[in-house]
Description:
The chain is mostly beta strands.
Amino acid sequence: MRKIFFLIFLSICFYLFAQHKLIPVVIDADEINYLHQDKKIVAKKNVKVEYKDVELFCDEVEYDTQKNIAYIKGKVKIVRKDALFYGENIVYDFNKKEIQANKTRIESPPIYGEAEKAERKEERYILKEGYITTCDLKKPHYRLVAKKVIIYPKERIIAKNMVLKAGNLPLFYFPYYSHSLKDKSSPYQIIPGKDSKWGFYLLNRWRYYFNENNKGKIHFDFYEKRGEGGGFTHRLKTNMGEILLNYYFIEDELYSLDKRKELIDYYPERKDTIAEYLEDDRYKAQIYYFWQPTPYFSIRSEVNKFSDKDFMHDFFYREYEKEPHPLTYTLFDYALNNSSLSLLVQKRMNHFFTETEYLSQLEYNLYRQNLGKSNFYWESKTTLGNLTYKVANSDLDYDAVRFHSHNILSFSKNIKWLYFNPYIGNYFTFYSKNSFGDENTFRVAPEIGLNLSTKLYRVFGVNFNFFQKIEKIRHIITPQIQYHYIHSPTVSKDHLFSFDNIDDLERKEAVVFILDSKLQAKNKEKVWDFVYFSPSLEYQINKEGKGSYFNKMNMDLEIYPREGISLVSDAEYDFLDRAFKEVNLDIDFSDTKNNKYSVKFGHRYLRKESSQTTVGLTYQITSKLQFKNYLRYEYKKGDFKEQQYALRVDLHCWWLDYGVNIDDDKSFTFWVIFRLKAFPDIHIGFDHTYHGAKKEY
């Protein structure tokens, strides 16, 4: 086999010129002929052409050295870093990096496409009379067909008048289709199912994409028992900030007057709800805005308006679980040197919520900082605001102008092995009026405190296996003593309006004993935090009406034997009640090597309120079938709060998820979800996942 290296530059053998640019082209073939008069090279059989980051394979090529263009006959394979390109009878312009081809196929995972004709221009591929898909089979399970498709590898896809086909069966028409390949969300989502309070339902989400700064999705849903609902979510990024608009509306048939008895049967707790909040026109309108024009200044704002307090519970339960009472506010925040200044404006938008309005509140934070070169430090927090407390579903409210300042002077020094940190502080608050209507009330409460700590450690040479080999253990102990005293305020909290926790200030004196203990493990491969245990004991001094006593003990425990196994627990023991007040436990056991299984166990105990166990299980039954289970059991009631059973079937380029959910009132929800593997994210919350313990300390 012979090689000829053509450099568009002065060469010992001959001169080749291509628009006066130095462009190295390497041609390798079984047969190579140089046509000196035409300035062309003809190569045949097992031809390979190399040009910068491009490799071209074919049976025959005619290369014009003056124009730097290759004319390729027969079948061709072009390898680029962003894609594989197959075609017939290709013209390749090396100067412009342009391709013209017939009978083409492009492979740029996760996108695959074929077309009768195709071309490449300016870092994009244009397919004509073709299709794209995420299925890598020669006969894909589904296709998106259009007369013209533009692919920007690894970036996005754009097409007009596109039809979704399964085999040869047309399923859906897109007048305009644009999808970012960086976004893992599915472009179109259809979820059918059945729910005892919705009946049969069909949830639809269509994502549209104009560009990375202007995109969103359209909602259109059908509920057998509730009617049709629709809305949109739109995200807009501009030089003036980022805006998220979220709107949804449904004329709820269950809320119509002639179905009031059926409504109360489904939701008995709403029997005494004011009629104004049982209107059938139900909606949510939400706006989120964020702008950071400089690294030091930002504006954050939210508007949350709902038709009634139960709307989110009924139609967007996962969002409701995370935040059952969203606020409406605007926050201006400016970062200064070692301090920050902010302005909060918070207004109640929903009459059925009890809220404190801040119209407005200015806050200045001076972060802990050194005074000169001494060991003294100063920190403070100051707020000034006009506050109004409004009671739900009534005209009852109270208001006051409040100025509050909390200042602390501290001293920090390491005295040999001992860390020594005493401090003094003061709470000062002014109210324009108190709860009795008296004007100009001043409240003062001084405080003092002391923190003492040290650190001890020892290294032990060991040799044992506990889920993995351990050769050394480093034991670190950090004992701490914290004393804190707040003098009785000059005005009792019972004489003040209660807007937030600033108004709940009262006398407090306590000593806290803490013993942080950590085991760090080491082997030849790594060092990691193996065990962390931190018990703390609080002793209350001269508590009003109770004297001095041990109040509570807190315990934190974390164990990480190896990757994939973890235990995290915290508990609070109340000495007065002689019982645990709160206990949380999370255990995670996962196969991180083969992803065969994942078991997560959790328990939440809150005395006199709740005792719940949560279990999450994922098990790969076969390479094509996965089982998922989520259970939440309430011991106080002796019944499940929630059960979920789901199967995932691997359909090559798709995942088919179907499952059933049973809640505490025995309501059933059944759903079916098709997920593209390339774009698996679904923004409709049915699949409930328990995340378990954290993975590392």
